[in-house]
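>> received
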Amino acid sequence: MDKLEEQARLAREKYGDIIDLPGPESKRKKMSIENRAAQFAPFAALTGFHESVDETEDAYSKEHEMGGVSIIDDEDGRIS
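>> returned
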């Protein structure tokens, strides 16, 4: 008898009286598919992330076009 079969036998011995019983059923009304899907809809966990990536991409593109030279505006730190 291999290890898995032995574990199954021990489980039947220990829990044999309840192992084949049906699981509990909820007393709540089932949620509609639309409401359930809304719980798993994407959300903006990283607010501002995409804007930051876009700004970095723009800055890199401008720097690359200028041959690696960048001009930074002292007021807001943006590349111009």
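>> The chain has a mean pLDDT of 81.
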